[in-house]
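Incident log, support desk, overnight shift.

02:14 A customer reports that sequence design results differ from what the structure should imply. Their input is reproduced verbatim below. On-call engineer (initials T.W.) acknowledged and began investigating.
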């Protein structure tokens, strides 16, 4: 059984910025902070990755790097894979995952590819999902990743975590925990 964590990249320089080609757009500082906070929150909840696969585009790769920095020591290995680049075929990603060792795999990529892949995994081809930057979809697969191989476990969107505020040494806090 594999658990897949589909993670959309964090906030990047907007498309159309004259300083960057679309494929070269990096994260903005707030995007870096949010990606790092996501790593901190996931680590605090005991979610560990055996491996992290990322799109080769800078905004996804930087998201993965910040996510792992949020984990601190013992973070998973990061691998850049072409199968997570925008517009790649889902079956290519399925084949890549079959060759990937580990039961807990994070995939850092782009929209609409990740939402489409999530729908494909859970057997809901017409599912309408749009992941915010950066969101996480957790899908457990009882069989090798592929069409209708998984079950949606949870979705974590940015309103449930965020960068640590100045003077808050405890780091990010889930909004739901603030009422306690």
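02:41 Re-run completed on a clean worker. Output:
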């Amino acid at each position: 059984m594999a658990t897949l964590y589909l993670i959309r990249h964090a906030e990047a320089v907007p498309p159309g910025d004259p300083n960057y080609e679309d494929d070269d757009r990096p994260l903005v500082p707030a995007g870096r902070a949010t990606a790092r906070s996501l790593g901190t929150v996931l680590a605090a909840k005991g979610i560990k990755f055996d491996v992290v696969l990322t799109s080769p585009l800078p905004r996804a790769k930087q998201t993965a790097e910040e996510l792992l920095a949020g984990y601190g020591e013992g973070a998973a290995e990061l691998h850049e894979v072409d199968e997570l680049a925008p517009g790649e075929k889902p079956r290519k990603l399925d084949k890549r995952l079959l060759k990937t060792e580990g039961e807990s795999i994070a995939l850092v990529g782009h929209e609409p590819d990740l939402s489409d892949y999530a729908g494909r995994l859970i057997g809901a081809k017409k599912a309408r999902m749009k992941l915010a930057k950066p969101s996480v979809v957790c899908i457990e697969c009882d069989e090798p990743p592929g069409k209708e191989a998984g079950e949606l476990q949870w979705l974590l969107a940015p309103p449930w975590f965020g960068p640590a505020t100045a003077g808050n040494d405890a780091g990010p806090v889930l909004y739901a925990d603030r009422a306690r």
